[in-house]
Amino acid sequence: MKSIVNYAKDETRSFKEFPFNDCDSLVLSTIVYFDFEDSIPSLFSRKKIKLKDIVIKNSYVKFLGDKKKYLKLLEGAISNPRFNELYLDNYYEKESEKEEVQFKAMTFENDDFVYVSYMGTKSCLVSWKEDFMLSYLKQVPAQKLALKFLNRIMIETLKPIIVGGHSKGGNLAIYASMKTMWLNRIRIKKVYSHDGPGFSKIICHSSKYNSIKRKISKTVPATSIVGMLFNSIEEYKIIKASGRGFNQHSPLNWLVKDSEFIYLKTRSRTSKIIDKRVSNWIDNLSKEDKIKFTECLFEALDKGGFDAMFISNRNYLSMIRAVRKGLKNVDEETKDIIIEIVKRLFVYKKEISKNSDI
After folding, report:
1. Element (H, E) at 143
2. For the chain, what are the domain ranges?
3. Distance CA 54, CA 39 (A)
């Protein structure tokens, strides 16, 4: 079965011959995860570099999970005329534990459009904590930066704009697109959210959100966890993905056939459980309880040694035990929800839950 890695190499038609689509967006939303350091011109530089001129370094993937697959995707895109003539520019990154922010964005440009790509959630807990802060803050730090970044790009070019991201990057893409001024919103052709978390009910029913709703293309894997967090009211397409549980969140595992995703009719049972049980429970908490829940969850994940970019069964039981140990002073209902979330983040197996005494 082919994946987005194969698509990055094998779909060689130009964007005029085969228009920009969900698969293209996921490729560009994945490339932004690479740690390009000084290889790409910064946000305030007037220089540009073509993708084909990027010299691959192992250091680009030092913080990514499946390093070989990520490098293979980049190698494929660099060798592919569909992608390698794109100009890479406006590389900007900010990460601060003190400010509880993790943000990165960049642009891909040709004669017809500029694609604004927001990075999603990395392995650091700061990034994951920021995802859950979406449930109680009107604006998280990364959203503020995303809006500033998009406004800056709008000033620099008059070309049509496409905005997108994977995971938290999808949330940032929607947020920045709806919050920018109305003249800018008109210039946005499409907004792509690849398994990105939703928003509070207030935002989902706002006039600014509704003004771009028809431009949003949301895709989620069958076992979507992140994309179903909070209120996800956008229509979405379900993608077949390899792996189980949270491993389907990785863009490298999304499956492709005949140059398009393999679409399914329904999400998995695991995804629906997360949607109904966890998201609804969080949504009904007071702001104070949401803050308390988030702090408890991430303190427990930290003690459990959680690595979001690579989750396997090897450390499943040890991590669950470490998390439960860190929740001694938490009420039973909150404890149950946290354990539920942690279980679903792993390659969940029924036999583990049935035979385990945790």
Report:
1. helix 141-156
2. 2-269, 285-355
3. 7
β 216-221/236-239 pair status: parallel
Report which DSSP code applies to 231: B
Residue 4 confidence (pLDDT) above 80: yes
Two tokens, residue 158:
């008059």
Q: Which of 228, 232, 220, 226 is nearest to 261 (CA)?
A: 220
Separation between Cα atoms, residue 231 and residue 234, nearest integer Å: 9
Report field, pTM of the whole predicted structure over 0.90: no
Q: State the number of CA atoms in the 13 A half-sphere of 346 facing the CB.
A: 22
Task: Say which amino acid occupies 355.
Answer: N
CB 239 within 8 A of CB 254: yes
CATH number of 2-269: 3.40.50
Q: Is the pLDDT of residue 61 over 60?
A: yes
User: Is 353 a residue whose pLDDT tops 60?
Assistant: no
Greater confidence (351 vs 109) lies with 109
3-class secondary structure per residue, 29-49: HHHCCCCCCCCCCECCCCCCE
Around 285, how many Cα atoms within 13 Å sit in the side-chain half-sphere? 22
Confidence class of residue 247 from pLDDT cuts 50, 70 and 90?
A: confident
> Which token pair is 170?
């999808």
Q: Is the pLDDT of residue 269 over 90?
A: no
Q: Alpha-carbon distance 229 to 280, whole Å? A: 9
Rounded CA-CA distance 74/20 in Å is 18
The CA distance from 352 to 151, in Å, is 48
